[in-house]
Design goal:
The structure is a homodimer of 150-residue chains.
Chain A: E1 2-5, H1 8-16, E2 20-27, E3 30-37, E4 39-41, E5 46-52, H2 55-62, E6 65-75, E7 78-91, H3 98-110, E8 121-122, E9 131-147
Antiparallel strand pairs in A: 1-9, 2-3, 2-6, 4-5, 5-9, 6-7, 7-9
């Protein structure tokens, strides 16, 4: 098996063809990793997403430094992974967020169903959680691809 | 779509039937998430794995608080995810690590191929990295399963 480092363009291609990854945040040096669905915006080099308010959002509001991981695994010898450091940015109701909010909603309209899991009502909860729209502004992307040697 | 919380037994079942997940560590509140292959040991409630020495191992040696995420995604409406907090423990050469080291190697013999990616030689590197055997001692498991409503 040989592992290649991906170029920046290849990393962006992986993000652009994916909609599912993992989002890592941290509080007091305790990392927390959860699955999430996203839409990559190549023009701004950021990921748009949507979530019910909960532990993940609470932690990212306190510490906006995050890490995103996306992988495509065929088997142990053939896989691709991209890891990106980024910054959590919440889209509020303020006038200065209007452009980003519109951009996020245009993505959501293209994929009207993919963000529904973020609002899935957990059993046992009496009321659905409030929700937020956010983006992860990416500032460092690295990627690796493993290919089984012939 | 309805989301169910998994029981502890169901979380363990997911880990036991998986060999691939994501490992999150943190340094100075910067999370770092990477894919990894593992073997779950239900008797000790820990995950055994193997890695080349690099950023992930350096960070976990400095801060052993980690988070493991494992998911099975059929589509946006049908998925299972388990998130576990744990502690990084490296298997050294010391006599007190002998029992754990033997246990790790017994797992590796059962799945002789799965850990090879950890030692995959990246192109451009002149020498393969040194490697370590480690386990993640799990102390909190939570899980969720989404099922599309009929």
């Amino acid at each position: 098996m040989v592992i290649h480092e991906l170029t920046l363009a290849q990393c962006r291609d992986v993000l652009g063809s994916s909609s599912h990854g993992r989002l890592g945040c941290a509080r007091a040096d305790q990392p927390y990793v959860v699955p999430f669905f996203f839409q990559y915006d190549s023009t701004g080099d950021c990921l748009y997403s949507f979530s019910a308010i909960g532990q993940k959002i609470d932690w990212m509001r306190d510490n906006p430094m995050v890490c995103v991981e996306v992988d495509e695994v065929i088997d142990q010898f053939n896989w691709t992974s991209v890891v990106a450091f980024g910054r959590y940015e919440e889209m509020g109701d303020s006038p200065q967020d209007e452009g980003a909010r519109r951009r996020a909603h245009s993505f959501f309209q293209h994929r009207s169903a993919w963000w529904l899991p973020a609002l899935g009502k957990a059993t046992g909860r009496e009321e659905p959680h409030a929700s937020v729209v956010y983006r992860i502004a990416l500032h460092k992307l690295t990627g690796r691809r493993a290919i089984q040697a012939k």
